[in-house]
Structure of Podospora anserina S mat+ genomic DNA chromosome 1, supercontig 6:
Amino acid sequence: MKSFSIASLPLVISLTTSCTHSPADSPSISPVPRNKPPKYHTTSPKIPLSVRKHWIHQANTLALFPYPCPFAAFGTVIVNHTLDNPQGTLICTGANQNSLAGNPTLHGEMAAINNCSSIFVSSAYNMTPAESLAAFKDLSLYTNAESCPMCAAAVRWAGFREYVYGVSIKELIELGWGQLDIGSEEVIGSGVGMRDQDPEVVLGGVGSEESKVLFGWQFAGGDCPSGCERGERSDGCLPVELE
Ligand SMILES: [Zn+2]
């Protein structure tokens, strides 16, 4: 796997301190200014939409492996577009593992970020923890559905360079999915005094028509994903070979 150019990565980490002051200690505390309002690029002329859709397709493919119609087919791929590769270089992936791991925090984005951190400090990259933290500044996160507030917060804390999603939270709600109805861009843009900048690029609705098929059958009665069908024993979609 191609390595990062470590030399180009700033390695200084600002430690966020949490101090408690009484009013007597700090009689003239001023509100901490919010980070500058995000001025996201909602288009990215340097990277064609076809490339963006390719990575969303990869997130979908990942979410459907090895089972073609999992209930929670949320997938994420993390890509480096700063290397000499027009298509981008895949760094790590993650799929929703709530049921598999019994861990409610392992949404696709969280799983992918954890996987990236693991490989960065492994022998594959040999990064120090500080280098691992700094490496996220060069990376783009693609998720086939908009990040929930937990994952959006993780995206912002990681300091990703780009954040790209497919189906929106509003669309998931319309399809019957329970969601925390707070847009990811609102979460990402709400940072105050944080060390990294907001992402340079935030794109939503990329490849959403393809991704919607993965989320439209559970509650909304949509067609099953390819390779699955509604059987006599279940209202849900099951792999054809299991029927
Ligand atoms: Zn999430």
